[in-house]
Each structure stands twice: as structure tokens, then as C-alpha cells.
Design goal:
Elements: H1 4-11, E1 21-25, E2 28-31, H2 40-49, H3 73-91, E3 98-102, H4 109-124, E4 128-132, H5 133-142, H6 152-161, E5 164-168, H7 177-192, E6 196-201, H8 214-218, H9 220-229, E7 230-234, H10 240-247
Parallel strand pairs: 3-6, 3-7, 4-5, 5-6
Antiparallel strand pairs: 1-2
Helix pairs in contact: 3-4, 6-7, 7-9
Length: 249
């Protein structure tokens, strides 16, 4: 049951005019007073609609624990990653760049991406969506089946327009021409509509041990676009999941 304030928010507030945001000074906004009593059910619905995988539902910025020796580059990079994620949440929606979380397997990139998404939903009522990029490609391919109940356009519509999109594992799919075209279409469309995107990738800008770079996986043109769209957060460290298993009795 919506309160009177929530009903005002739905119909159109004279302060925020239905946007949910109130300007307090130049280039600074805060959640409008009319949204103060929106029920927790609305947040729950947004969280459910975000498609967060069960494995990550407990992820929070507060339970991301940086790992590494005191004053080590690994520890400092992970601490800086948390700070930049918190700053992103604080600045939203008054920001025009998303995030690109880069680093090896197991350093917590997806943990941080999901944590940011959840904070944006809870504190800013943002409409968010999570997709593993490989799963998204699979869904699109399945839509080509004549028996499919979903069309490609129906799948891509929320991908194009949702306020904040998390695309996990960018570059993980084999870079065929179709994959390249699909990546370019999604990323360029969100760029043109000024929608914020948070990417995670295991591929770096420089090759280590002859591994492919991100540019080699997605193409130089798309890598350049990501520079323009996102603040890059480089996270270094060992695979925390493997390390944790090695300590288990």
C-alpha cells in the first residue's frame, strides 16, 4: 500500500516533477523528499528485476575485503577500487561515465559490480540490470530459433535503455564477426543514449605471459569507445577463491 508521499511521487511532484531527484545546488542532486516513503517493496522489485545471480546476492561493498600485504600494490589497488565504486554511487546520477573493472580472475570484479548495482537500487531507485555477456549472447542466438517466444529486439530493448547495466565477463566469448557486431551494437547504442554501463573483464591493456589484451578481444575501435564511456579500475592480486579453498580444512 503506497503512502500519500509515494502517490505524489507517482503522479508528479512539484519539486522534482516526477524525476525523483531534487536539485540542491548547481550540479548537485539528492533524492527528492517525495520519494522518502516509497515502500521497501519497490526496492525489492527493482532488485529482483536486476537479474542478480544467486551466487552474488550477498555481495556488498562493505563485505569486499581487500587482500594483500600491507602497502602492497595488490592491497592498494583493491582499496582504491572500493573507493572508486563508492564514489560512483555517491555521484550518480550526476555522472556521465560508467566503470570498467579490469583484472585477473578471482580479485572480486563481479563482487564490486554487483555491489554498486545494489547500492544504486537501494539509495537512488535506479533501474539496473546484470548480464553475463556470454549468457546474453546465448539468449540472442536462441531468439533466432523459429520456435522461440522471444525476439532479438525484445531481449535487447532493456539492454539498450536500462539506467545502469552490468556486463560481466566482457571479452570472454570467442571474438567472431557476429560477436564483434553484437558487442558494438550494444555498447554504441548505450553510448548514444547516454546510459551508464559497468563492465568487468579478465583481459588487460597490456599482454602478460602472451595472453590476449582487451583490445585484441573486442577490437581497437571498441576499446577506444570504452575509454570514453568508463573510468577504468585496474584491480591486481591473486585468485582469492583459489586461495580460500587452499586454506579450507
Amino acid at each position: 500500500m503506497l503512502t500519500e508521499k509515494a502517490k505524489v511521487a507517482e503522479k508528479g511532484c512539484p519539486i522534482c516533477h516526477g524525476t525523483g531527484w531534487e536539485y540542491v545546488q548547481e550540479r548537485t542532486v539528492r533524492r527528492c523528499r517525495c520519494r522518502g516513503d516509497v515502500s521497501s517493496t519497490a526496492v525489492e522489485r527493482l532488485l529482483e528485476a536486476a537479474r542478480i545471480p544467486p551466487r552474488y546476492v550477498e555481495c556488498e561493498l562493505k563485505n569486499y575485503i581487500p587482500q594483500g600485504e600491507v602497502n602492497s600494490p595488490e592491497l592498494e589497488s583493491q582499496r582504491m577500487a572500493v573507493l572508486m565504486c563508492r564514489q560512483f554511487v555517491k555521484e550518480y546520477p550526476n555522472t556521465d561515465r560508467g566503470l570498467l573493472l579490469m583484472g585477473p580472475v578471482g580479485v572480486g570484479k563481479t563482487h564490486l559490480a554487483v555491489s554498486v548495482l545494489k547500492e544504486l537500487i537501494r539509495t537512488k531507485m535506479a533501474h539496473c540490470l546484470f548480464y553475463d555477456f556470454r549468457d546474453l549472447l546465448k539468449e540472442i542466438q536462441e531468439s533466432y530459433n523459429p520456435d522461440s517466444q522471444r525476439t532479438e529486439s525484445r531481449i535487447l530493448e532493456p539492454i539498450y535503455h536500462v539506467d545502469v547495466l552490468v556486463l560481466d565477463e566482457l571479452g570472454a566469448a570467442k571474438p567472431t564477426a557476429w560477436v564483434q557486431d553484437t558487442m558494438t551494437q550494444i555498447i554504441n547504442t548505450r553510448y548514444n543514449y547516454k546510459r551508464l554501463t559497468i563492465f568487468t573483464t579478465n583481459y588487460l591493456d597490456t599482454s602478460i605471459n602472451n595472453e590476449e589484451t582487451l583490445a585484441e578481444r573486442v577490437g581497437e575501435r571498441l576499446r577506444s569507445r570504452l575509454h570514453e564511456m568508463c573510468k577504468t579500475i585496474l584491480i591486481i592480486g591473486r585468485d582469492y577463491r583459489r586461495f580460500s579453498r587452499s586454506l579450507a580444512p
